[in-house]
Amino acid sequence: MFDFTATYTDQYQITMSQVYFHKGLQDETAVFDYFFRDLPFGGGYAIFAGLEDLLQAATNLRFDANDLALLKKEGMDAAFLDYLEDFRFTGTIRAAREGDLIFPNRPVVSVEGSIIEAQLLETLLLNTLNYQSLIATKASRMWLSANGRTLVDFGLRRAPGTGGYAASRAAVIGGFEATSNVRAGRDYHIPISGTMAHSFVQRYDDELEAFRAFAEIRPHDCVLLVDTYDTLESGMPHAIQVGQEMAARGEQLKGIRLDSGDLAWLAKQSRAMLDEAGLEEVKIAVSNQLDEHVIKSLLDQEAPIDLFGVGTSLVTGRPDAALDGVYKLAFANNEPRLKLSENIEKVNLPGRKQVFRLVYPDGSFYGGEVVGLTDEPAIDVMYHPTEPEKVLDLERFELQPLLHPVMVEGERTTEPQPVQELAAFSQAQLRHLPDEFKRFENPHLYKIGLSQALLEERDRLMRAHRGG
Amino acid sequence: MFDFTATYTDQYQITMSQVYFHKGLQDETAVFDYFFRDLPFGGGYAIFAGLEDLLQAATNLRFDANDLALLKKEGMDAAFLDYLEDFRFTGTIRAAREGDLIFPNRPVVSVEGSIIEAQLLETLLLNTLNYQSLIATKASRMWLSANGRTLVDFGLRRAPGTGGYAASRAAVIGGFEATSNVRAGRDYHIPISGTMAHSFVQRYDDELEAFRAFAEIRPHDCVLLVDTYDTLESGMPHAIQVGQEMAARGEQLKGIRLDSGDLAWLAKQSRAMLDEAGLEEVKIAVSNQLDEHVIKSLLDQEAPIDLFGVGTSLVTGRPDAALDGVYKLAFANNEPRLKLSENIEKVNLPGRKQVFRLVYPDGSFYGGEVVGLTDEPAIDVMYHPTEPEKVLDLERFELQPLLHPVMVEGERTTEPQPVQELAAFSQAQLRHLPDEFKRFENPHLYKIGLSQALLEERDRLMRAHRGG
Question: Do B186 and A11 touch (CB under 8 A)?
Answer without folding.
Answer: no
